[in-house]
Automatic annotation (TrEMBL):
Residues 1-12 have a biased composition (Polar residues). It is found in: Cell membrane. It comes from Ceuthmochares aereus. The gene is Sytl2_1. This is Synaptotagmin-like protein 2. SMART domains: C2.
Amino acid sequence: ESDTASEISFQFNKHKKTPSIDSHSSDMASVSSVSGSVLSVYSGDFGSVDAQGTVEFALDYDEKNREFQVHVSQCKDLAVVDEKKGRSDPYVKTYLLPDKARMGKRKTSVKKRTVNPIYNEVLRYKIEKMVLLIQKLNLSVWHNDPLGRNSFLGEIEIDLASWDWSNRKLNWYPLKPRSLSAVNGVDHRGVMNLSIKYVPPGSLGKMFHALSPKNPPSGEVHIWVKDVKDLLQLRPSGVDSFVKCYVLPDTSKKSYQKTRVIKRDTNPLFNHTIVYDGFHTEDLKDACVELTVWDHEKLTNHFLGGIRLGLGTGLSYGISVDWMDSTQEEVAFWQEMMSAANEWIEGLLPLRSL
């Protein structure tokens, strides 16, 4: 079913701007909210101190309550943030990676005016053991600033698949500087391989018009979703993924398309082509193709990542919209399509939080 082209007619009306911009905005809010509030592990870091010192903690899994427990005991010899006052106000924060949005963060209380804080607190995650074993624990120490200008003091990252779960004792670990993998790839959600093409009005149309003596009266945007690599693995068996597509600002059923579900594969091959007609060349600067990848489950689908192809101007038909937020890579991809009519433009774009 996914190997055949899907034909969708998409009619823009510049004079009406958007038929009901309020409903479009609320629709997008409901779609985007599934991803949760995703902030960088290092958000709010304004400090420039070097990581030093150690942290004492222990890990345990409570089989009865299906709960992962991080016993944070204490830290020693942390860096001094406010040198004039000779103080740091440290706390400890944890994430389960790679999908920090799903599991959320946990943090201890703040200990004031000390570089040797004692916590003796347990940070808890309700999670199945098999799911836990495909995660990494990121434990970091921070200086708390009343104005929110928190400073990073050091971290440690543990691969839970190789952790010795018989070791329940408190142990000391050296705090390390930010790892490049964490800074650059902590929100890595995979990469989509796709091609797009714009067929202007009056030029040779799609396959459905090949036998017709008339050329299509309006332009077409062709989207060929080939495959996705390195999706988040939410279960030990992999992930059951599919791709949704909208041409914004339209979030109606008329705009909506999706691929078939590829089961138990973090590198799914879709090979799915979608064709939207009703485009005029001037519409390309105001429209945005949104492609999102989802994990399919019976009760609810989980957002894995997405891309938005457009000019990223923040405006659509003169109206300010939050979804016109394409990255530099996405904008360049869209611009190349606009400047090369009737040609397939190939791209490899990273999925992101929307």
